[in-house]
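TOKENISED FOLD:
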Amino acid sequence: MTGRGHRGKGLSQFLNHWAVVSPQLRPANRAFAARAAAKGALGGPHIRDLSDAWARCHDLMRRPAIITAAAMKPETSPAAGQPMPTALVTGSSRGIGAAIASALEARGLAVIRHGTRAAGPMTLAADLSDAAATARLWDDACALAADTASGRIDVLVNNAGVFEASPISGTDAYWLAEWERCLRVNLTSAAQLSRLAVKGWLEGGLPGRLVNIASRSAYRGDSPDHWHYAAAKAGEVAMTKTIARAYAKKGILAFAICPGFTDSSGGNAEDYLASRGGPALLNDIPLGRVALPTEIAAMAAFCASDAPPSMTGAVLDANGASYVR
């Protein structure tokens, strides 16, 4: 094909042609080219011929420095006049979950909290070891979200979990019951809620974000009494990656955070260390201290609102370099 038919034509006409003859171009790149055209970024209102235009367009795409802040704006950040998103945060009555809920609220999101007991109009109670209760939690959260600015759940943070010992010396029945309870709360309920969220977003043609709070145990393993916990958290990480790969083109993004030991004592660090085996715990953490709930919350809030779409599928560590992969 020659460039004769394009000689002297405007930039926007060429870009329209470019989009037609190049179906392999991603929509984001076509939009980027259109913005560039509007700003005259290809160097002038006219092009000499098609080969000249191709050269200038490809040069443009290789120069990320001209991409504006607006072009890098996260997809879930509301545009002017758009409502702020609504988030459901499980296990948010205390500790990491409470810190995440507060961090999201500080960013302007409406937050629906969850705990074992309802403690306010925007807090729902549910026992996540019960599949029926987990399903009701989603339904109830959607009902609450209908009265928020966005009218729906835009962000799901799966934080709820249990960390209970199950030594192999226990009876067969006890060991198996603890294994099943751990997986039910830490993995299956997160999968159940994630499925309901993804289904809703797909059916509505809407974007959404999942943030799963996993654990360092997913990669490093855990103590001999916590096989089940490590297995559940590894499953949560694998689920996150699978969701990210499956639905990225639909605007559904998924992230996982893997904290190491995190001080959930509410400020009494000595009590926390005692509950985890004493100060010797710190010998294994190069940073010299355990993580803080506010640190995990900052990471979760970033994933829920500001992380660029290309980060989907990322697994973020927060363990003071006690495990580096």
Summary: The chain has two domains: 4-66, 86-318. The longest helix spans residues 172-204. The two ends are 50 Å apart (CA to CA).
